[in-house]
Write a structure and sequence with these properties.
Elements lengths: L8 E4 L5 H11 L3 E6 L21 H6 L3 E5 L9
Parallel strand pairs: 1-2, 2-3
Length: 81
């Protein structure tokens, strides 16, 4: 199956609902989506629930961020930028 957006790279800086959902759709269509999170805590959606998996992970966070790569970068620091 050919992915429509294969070869497209997307930088996802969004948090909460609409932005992560939009980048999830792009990832589902084959784009390489790189999600940027804050070091130390990451996206606040990681704590959103219920439902939570038995190990405490947010089922919503895992579902909305499927097919994405994730990095933690401090964009307030010169090295992060």
């Amino acid at each position: 199956m050919t992915k429509l957006l294969a070869g497209v790279r997307v930088l996802d800086l969004a948090r909460m609902l609409a932005g992560p959902y939009g980048s999830m759709l792009l990832a589902d269509m084959g784009a390489e989506v790189i999600k940027v999170e804050e070091p130390g805590g990451g996206d606040p959606m990681r704590a959103m629930g219920p439902p939570f998996l038995p190990d405490g992970e947010s089922a919503y966070f895992l579902a909305i961020n499927r097919n994405k790569k994730s990095v933690a970068i401090d964009l307030s620091a010169a090295d992060g930028r």
